[in-house]
Design goal:
The complex is a heterodimer of chains A (104) and B (577). Chain A contains 2 helices and 7 strands; from the N terminus they run E-H-E-E-H-E-E-E-E. With 104 residues, chain A is mainly β. Helix content of chain B is 35%, strand content 17%. The chains are: A mainly beta (104), B alpha/beta (577).
Chain lengths: 104, 577
């Protein structure tokens, strides 16, 4: 369970470093975000939601059955669009409206 | 030798921890414009605490036709009697108000055509809680008289003659020492995760039920300062989706899924329906060879499956990834369930500070709210908000009364001076020297990570973790106490290369202090009351003689355990300082 930061897409804005509840993300010497202790991530995805460039991807560790797919999220107004991309590049998307309550 | 920069802050009320309870305490105190409030948080209040990923229901709400007393009765039954009914009642009275406040601040709550909240079961209402934490954080930060101090880790209270006058800590990024003097302190730091070896101890070690960053700071500070604590033997073990440790309640209650064993038999009724009995049933079925156990979701409608996907993205995204990448959603495959490692968490069980009706601890001027406050289980989000509000109002009354007695005015330049404070036990200068010693010096043989692993192994093996089926014995607890004491000694010799290392060292130290209390309490209660949350193998039955609280206080570095009679319905407990 952790995140991967795509440095070529990272703008170095530092929002993820600011928000991580575990103080796990810091800026490295080149100004880009870097996760220091991959195994210490809780999986809350706060950093994904903060990132404006979609540079942060979330995945499940192989020890808990992860198969290499990555989760990302983008936001348009009240709608969050979550995407899961599998290792073959197939993408599955789902839109969640933040103004709509859960049904359960 | 490293010399940290020293910063001194004076405030009227210091709130430690900006999670659910802490943010709401700050929002409440926003109404009292003449006082200054400082909210210190080791991460950033925007996403810190239990609500980081979101939450999908408010599980403590008085639904139509029910009363606060019904909620008290439910919580008492669920905890097999070991609760403070006075605290439960004052919390329950405010639950609906807390929900309405959340809605006013911007959290979406599902309503029917008549504009009433839609209930899920007897005590729950449905919401979209993905953004609940940013909503609370924004409201706290917007209060004119509230200053938020993010990324500052508080490690110790400043106490003199059993009266609090502040706290000290450090910046988690820069070599800065903080000494904060305050008229009153509200502790809202949350419970303790990571005491026991987690279900997955390797790469996914932090894929746990409770925030791994809640390391028991508030408990540890209180224990070290000599505050009275209660019911640390009532650990919490959550029943969760296997591997992702995502909530099961949403599937069970929302989609009506039952717990079944490997033979497809529904087993819940066999064991009883309290929170601990539900865990026990699953543990037992596995132990007797009828596992794995599942939530029976196979065959649910596609619409239900889509709704579950959205619900999980709003609180536990890993479960969604699990469903999608396995190619089998809950409609195709039942969801396997398991029990987690034990946690100490006063929002679900009754562990925490021994407080009076105002949530004042046995240290004068120190208040506790949320997961750190004992005697009042089943808080969930709204209960934590209610306690944040109760503690905030009481802390305000306390400083007003103090002002009157001292003839000082709130907002004065230096009302709570350290000059009248400095005591030997909790001197700020000593604390600064302690931090600096970790930052200076040579690389040590062990790291904080090494010792954390040793602590978790010890607790797992000898104090009733997953590895020992949650069972423990007196002889094993003795071994645990010895091992934890020796790890504690080693922790004094660690080295911090930077402030991040220092944070990990203090998190470890907090956990070790909490472990000491847990072991002492487990050993004191000579019965098995909450089967599922733990089994005392020397005393496997419930015993009416133990219908009392097990409380403790640290004296000269040792935890002394004693008993207190139950505070029952209609009665109230007040401190006699």
């Amino acid at each position: 369970m952790s995140i991967r930061i795509e440095t070529d897409r990272c703008s170095g804005c530092g929002r993820c470093c600011e928000v991580c509840p575990g103080n796990l993300i810091r800026r490295s010497a080149d100004g880009k975000a870097d996760i220091r202790r991959r195994q210490d991530c809780w999986g809350c995805t706060s950093c994904l939601k903060e990132c404006k460039t979609g540079a942060i991807l979330f995945y499940l560790g192989a020890d808990i059955g992860g198969r290499g797919s990555v989760l990302s999220v983008s936001q348009k107004g009240d709608i969050k669009i979550w995407s899961v991309t599998d290792p073959g590049g197939n993408v599955q998307k789902i839109a969640v409206n933040s103004k709509e309550s859960n049904q359960y | 030798m490293i010399s940290m920069i020293q910063r001194h802050i004076d405030t009227d009320i210091l709130i430690i921890g900006g999670g659910t309870a802490g943010c709401f305490a700050a929002i409440t105190l926003g109404k009292e414009k003449e006082i200054r409030v400082l909210l210190a948080e080791k991460a950033n209040i925007r996403r810190s605490g239990c609500l980081a990923a979101g939450v999908n229901a408010l599980n403590a709400y008085i639904t139509k036709g029910k009363t606060p007393q019904d909620y008290v009765d439910y919580a008492r039954r669920d905890a097999a009697g070991i609760v403070r009914e006075d605290l439960l009642f004052s919390m329950a009275e405010r639950l609906n108000h807390a929900a309405e406040e959340l809605e006013r601040l911007g959290v979406v709550i599902l309503k029917d055509k008549q504009g009433e909240y839609v209930a899920r079961g007897d005590r729950n209402i449905k919401i979209n809680g993905e953004n609940i934490k940013p909503v609370l954080a924004r409201a706290a930060a917007e209060q004119e008289n509230v200053t938020v101090l993010n990324h500052v880790n508080i490690t110790d209270y400043l106490v003199k003659d059993n009266r609090i006058y502040g706290a000290c800590g450090f910046d988690v990024r820069e070599e800065v020492f903080y000494e904060i003097c305050a008229g009153a302190v509200i502790c809202a730091t949350g419970g303790a995760a990571g005491l026991y070896r987690p279900g997955h101890a390797g790469f996914s070690r932090h894929k746990m039920w409770y925030p791994p960053f809640n390391t028991g700071a508030g408990y540890a500070m209180g224990i070290r300062a000599g505050a009275e604590m209660t019911t640390f033997e009532m650990r919490f073990i959550a029943l969760r989706c296997k591997d992702t440790i995502a909530p099961t309640g949403t599937i069970a209650q929302g989609a009506g899924a039952r717990q079944i064993n490997a033979y497809g038999e529904e087993y819940e009724e066999k064991y009883g329906l309290t929170t601990s009995q539900r865990v026990y049933g699953t543990v037992r079925e596995n132990k007797e060879g009828r596992g794995p156990c599942y939530l029976k979701t196979k065959g649910i409608a596609e619409k239900q499956e889509q709704d579950l996907y959205k619900a999980y993205l709003n609180m536990a995204p890993s479960q969604y990834v699990r469903w999608v990448e396995s190619g089998k959603g809950p409609a195709q495959e039942n969801v396997e369930i398991e029990g987690t490692e034990p946690y100490i968490v006063g929002g679900h069980t009754a562990s925490g500070y021994w407080v009076d009706g105002d949530r004042q601890t046995t240290i004068r001027g120190l208040f506790a709210a949320g997961d750190v406050a004992g005697g009042c289980p089943q808080k969930y989000v709204t209960g934590a908000l209610a306690e944040g509000e109760i503690a905030a109002e009481a802390a305000y009354r306390y400083i007003k009364a103090e002002e009157k007695s001292k003839e000082i005015s709130a907002g004065a330049a230096y009302p709570y001076s350290k000059a009248e404070g400095e005591s030997k036990e909790t001197s700020a200068a000593d604390k600064k020297a302690e931090y600096e010693a970790y930052l200076s010096g040579e690389e040590a043989l062990f790291t904080a990570d090494d010792l954390e692993e040793a602590m978790q192994e010890t607790m797992d093996r000898y104090a009733g973790g997953i590895g020992s089926g949650y069972g423990y014995r007196e002889s094993g607890l003795k071994t645990a106490a010895e091992k934890i004491a020796s790890i504690e000694k080693l922790s004094q010799k660690l080295h911090a290369a930077d402030m991040d290392d220092l944070l990990r060292i203090y998190e470890l130290k907090e956990r070790l202090t909490v472990c000491q209390a847990v072991i002492a309490h487990l050993s004191a209660r000579k019965e098995t009351r909450w089967r599922g949350f733990g089994e005392n193998l020397d005393y496997p039955q419930e015993d009416a003689a133990w219908e009392k609280y097990v409380n403790s206080r640290m004296e000269n570095g040792t935890i002394r355990v004693f008993e207190r009679e139950l505070v029952k319905g209609g009665a109230a407990y007040e401190h006699t300082h």
